[in-house]
Amino acid sequence: MLVAAATAVLIASGSTAYANCDPGEIVIKFSHVTNTDKHPKGIAATLLEQRVNDEMNGKACMQVYPNSTLYNDNKVLEALLNNDVQMAAPSLSKFEKFTKKFRIFDLPFMFKDVNAVDAFQNSETGQAMKTSMVKRGLLGLEFWHNGMKQFSASKPLLVPGDAKGLKFRVQSSDVLVAEIEAMGAVPQKMAFSEVYGALQTGVVNGQENTWSNIYGKKFFEVQDGTTETNHGIIDYLVVTSTDFWDGLPDDVRAQLTTILREVTEKRNAESTAVNNDAKDAIMKAGGVVRQLNAEQRQMWVDVMKPVWTRFEGDVGKDNIMAAQKFNT
Ligand code: LMR
Description:
InterPro entries: DctP_fam, TRAP_DctP, TRAP_DctP_sf
Strand content: 15-25%
Signal peptide: 1-19
Protein name: DctP family TRAP transporter solute-binding subunit
Pfam family, one: DctP
Shape: globular
Helix content: 40-55%
Structural class: alpha/beta
Bound molecules: (2S)-2-hydroxybutanedioic acid
Organism: Sneathiella marina
Low-confidence stretches: 1-15
């Protein structure tokens, strides 16, 4: 397996190589879709790989496949169930086929910042969500943070009316489809790996994402600008299959759990800073970032918040109220 120094070189160079696993080691393939630097998930996955390979040498070996090199998020959950990969961290928007409970995380203006998301996830309701798909063979291990979503488009967006008639790429979530329709725009579900090309060729005119994704996949290069709306969140569930997890020797499962917990705490505490850096990097690279005044922001809230009512049945009114408490 690669030694820590070699891993560090790979992180620094941003290149991708996979640990050579020794015979007898349990191989854990971790597939994800983002870049590895200036990205909360990319950094966390690389750190996890490094720690597992350093501290569990001889027992377990992790290989992280970033940038959709192995699977995109729409395929990775099936791949987990087939044991083709053993870990992934799709955004919570991508679990729709398995649970409707996560829809709460996609409701626009539900959480004012990542701290509110963190507090909700750490509540009893949030923690129970990790085991909500066990019957379907998937087990959530930890929530990983990315950050608040912003809108980018092929023209300046200051009020919702500016988005009218534009086509926006969304993740595979019906809540996000409803959100875009509420703006009078046209939603199109699409895999993350296809977004840059679709923006460049005009297949879609805009998209919503975090600063780290807009920077990491260079969306800002093929957009007029990005408006700081903070209208929603992108957060992740580190997920495995119950078959794989239950089949691990107890000591391996326990050590992995501890390492994953420590990586989660360390990297989640940095997610907002990583996104702020990505935002600065966008501006330094010449990307346009627009701010809303209070009146303009309220117009986006007024247009999008009615979406909540439509999904109240899926997420539970009591859960919405519980989530709202963490915004104060
Ligand atoms: C997206 O599809 O836009 C995001 O879920 C990608 C990611 O993993 O952050």
